[in-house]
Amino acid sequence: MGLQVVLGRQYQALLLGRRDAGAGAAVAGVATQAHFDEHQLPAVVADQVDFAYLGRYTNAAWLVIQAPGEARDGLFARNAEGHPLVLAAGGGLASAMEPDVEARIVGEATLPDGRRAVPVFQLIAERYLDPKYTPEAAAPICGIPAETIRRIAGEIAHTAFSEEIEIAVPWTDWAGRRHETMRGRPVGMHAMRGISAHSNGFQTCRALHLLQILLGTIDVPGGWRYKSPYPKPAPPGTAIGNRGFRSSTTTAARIACNA
Fold it and tell me: Could you tell me the pTM of the whole model?
């Protein structure tokens, strides 16, 4: 898994990798080399990020405590009510649960107890600024030229941001804010058994979804809307009268308990 985000600049580069222990895979129609090492991943780059989406619908702005050696290092900073804290645009602390707060996803905050905290997005960005996540570094490993990686990045970004979908249907979001239209981005990705069956494959799946989050394509028209066709029970769930189906796992557990 990998992504590279350049802070403080308009250009945002996200390096997304796939690892496959079997035969070579295809990324956007580009043949890749199979490799077992978790760092040697075929790559796709997206060159834009939906910052408004991150601020409204994700925890990208939540503050993470930076206190190496302490028990709370790496935990979310919270107020007395237990609400996660964010760094407000004006520089102060605010509850992430406040619907109208304008939170920063880059910056540094000092908590009431004097400890330092930074937003989730900043930690991700700092990690993947490492040169080993650049398209140039990934190219010889995955067998895709750096210029091809960047071209695919441009195609993803163009589709997501220049071909935005807007549907004239009013809706209300989690914070109670009414929107007169629904906006979406026609980019969606789905990863199942082919990736997750391999060791550490979850990291690749997480990278796929992280890319979609950065693009603002989760739970929006044209994006990935939690409608994955699989997994399904194997064998299929057992019918229970007219009350629907019971999963095979639950049925097996009942049989085991009654044996």
Answer: 0.71
